[in-house]
Amino acid sequence: MSQVEQAVSEITGRAVTRVRRLGGTACAVQLDDGRTVFAKSAEPSSVAAEAASLEWLADAGAVPVPAVHGHDDRVLVTDHITAGRPSPRAADELGRGLAALHAAGAPAFGAPPPGGPADAWIGLAPMRNEHTDTWPEFYARLRVEPYVRLARDAGDLSTAEAKIITDRCERLDEVPAEPPARLHGDLWSGNVHWADRAWLIDPAAHGGHRETDLAMLHLFGCPHLERVLAAYQEVSPLAAGWQDRIGLHQLFPLLVHAVLFGRGYAVQAVAAARG
Q1: Which keywords does this chain's UniProt record carry (predicted)?
Q2: In this structure, what DSSP letter does residue 174 have?
Q3: 57-73, pLDDT tens digit by residue?
Q4: Judging by beta carbons within 10 Å of its beta carbon (0-12, 13-18, 19+), is residue 126 exposed, middle or buried?
Q5: Is-contact 122 256, C-beta < 8 A?
Q6: Does the pLDDT of residue 123 top 90, yes or no?
Q7: What DSSP string runs through 195-254?
Q8: Rounded CA gap, 32 and 155, in Å?
Q9: What is the pLDDT of residues 129-177, one digit of tens each?
Q10: Residue 1's pLDDT is what?
Q11: 117 C-beta neighbours (distance < 10 Å), count
């Protein structure tokens, strides 16, 4: 029996009858009672962070996320959500749900989910969460600067390019001040799972600025994005000029991608910093 099968059996209390690989370390696991659950293996802090993130998002009661069945040090087990097709109705619901999720708030900028580790992950990159007094301090110190250093040390950013990005972080006060929002934290289109509704998966949740989640949706395209944003605005209008700040909020995911995938994303981050 594999590590994943053993963990799923222990967590669910059921025997495993079939395992179907979904890519990477993710599996759809069929149980002897006919149910299918989702399982993925990762580093212990990554498993703990994702489990806490899913539970924190679920507590808001705003947007559907897979229920957590449990986890051990290496394997997380959640509901398995059968994929469907994006629909305008689901997009409208997603926009309203994101507005409510963000409004559920967080204790501070940089706050991790309750019970979640301070040293978390975004995808395969480490991500530090700690309470911070202001959004500019949080975004510069914990979201931009660590990845600038990693990309520069790897040779994917030159010293001059790194300075362009860090100089941009000296002007973060132009972003309208808002209370800390409860963010998904890694809301690119691949983490919107379209089924009967739009479900959110693979969160890297923390307290942040709500414009960051929406900027991530823009980064790689999202089905029916205009409808998502329109529905969001009906519930919780964004501050004037938010479209002009999309690139600023995309610095964080672009730099993470630069660290994981190299120079091409570093060039995009420099362009975003230049505006």
Answers
A1: Kinase, Transferase
A2: G
A3: 999 999 999 999 999 99
A4: middle
A5: yes
A6: no
A7: SSSEEE-S---EEE-HHHHHHHHHHS--TTHHHHHHHHHHHSPPPTTGGGGHHHHHHHHH
A8: 51
A9: 999 999 999 999 999 999 999 999 999 999 999 999 999 999 999 999 9
A10: 57
A11: 17
- Burial of residue 46 (number of CB atoms within 10 Å: 0-12, 13-18, 19+): buried
Integer Cα distance of 86 and 144 in angstroms? 32
CA distance 90 to 179: 27
CB burial class (10 A; 0-12, 13-18, 19+) of residue 241? exposed
| Structural domains of the chain in order of their starting residue, each with its CATH number | 85-274 (3.90.1200.10)
**Side-chain half-sphere CA neighbours of 49 within 13 A:** 28
In one-letter notation, the amino acid at residue 110 is G
* The two three-digit tokens of residue 24, written as one number: 């990477």
Q: What is the mean pLDDT of residues 92-106?
A: 98
Read off the pLDDT band of 3 (50, 70, 90): confident
Strand-strand pairing, 26-31 and 181-183 = unpaired
Average pLDDT over residues 196-222: 96
Question: How large is the average pLDDT for residues 14-20?
Answer: 93
Amino acid in position 159: T
For 75: left if phi > 0, alpha if psi spans -120 to 50, otherwise beta; the answer is beta
Outline where DSSP puts E strands in the chain. 16-23, 26-31, 36-41, 68-71, 75-79, 119-122, 125-128, 181-183, 192-194, 198-200, 206-208
Token look-up 């559920």 returns 104
